[in-house]
């Protein structure tokens, strides 16, 4: 039988900044009470699959989400899974930024311009994919059949834009807090450079 690895890509639960629609990237916020409650509700509904191996971003909101959804399973932390650095926009929301010409220019570029004092989309995507490649390599090396990656919305969007088996743009892969995708990796194809994630299920309603 051909060996395949099932992976859940899960966005962390809601934080106080998420509730206020703020750009929360490098800021190391914990989950909010509402975020914790939403995750536990989804878990009780059986949304999240079991995982033999759990990986996470080093930021607290991801580690806390992993601990809630996969208690007793210490996550393997990949620094490359950190969320994007939003630079001058970090910690602010639309209402606070709408009069800023730099923000309007970023909006007009459809989010392709680098954040002032922050990170470019290209650099963010490059490191996201590097982290994902490391995680997949570890799963293949250890012959892991089921894994969960508890990461950030932007990180998931980068991974799915690059490797998803459906042609969608970065923003079309967006998921809410607690949402994500269930995908399958074919290790044989992956190691031969044919790198594609078969999307089995999407759970967007976090």
Fold and architecture overview:
The chain has about 210 residues and is α/β, with parallel strands linked by helices. The longest helix is centred in the middle third of the chain and has 21 residues, at about 120-140. The protein has a 6-stranded mixed sheet. β2, α3 (about 60-70) and β3 form a beta-alpha-beta unit. Helices cover about 35% and strands about 15% of the residues.
Quick recap:
With 206 residues, this protein is of the alpha/beta class.
Main structural class: alpha/beta
Characterize the overall form: globular
Question: How far apart lie the N and C ends?
Answer: 35 Å
Order of helices and strands: EHHEHEHHHEHEHE
Cα-atom radius of gyration: 17 Å
Total helical elements: 8
Unreliable runs: none
Strand content: 15-25%
Average of the residue pLDDT scores: 94
The main β sheet shows up as: 6 strands, mixed
Query: Helical percent range?
Result: 25-40%
Give the strand order, joined by hyphens, for the main sheet: 3-2-4-1-5-6
Report the count of strand segments: 6
Strand and helix layout:
Elements: E1 5-11, H1 16-19, H2 33-44, E2 53-56, H3 60-69, E3 76-77, H4 94-97, H5 101-108, H6 121-141, E4 146-151, H7 153-163, E5 180-185, H8 187-191, E6 198-203
Helix pairs in contact: 6-7
Keywords:
globular; 6-stranded mixed sheet; 206 residues; 15% strand; 8 helices; alpha/beta; single chain
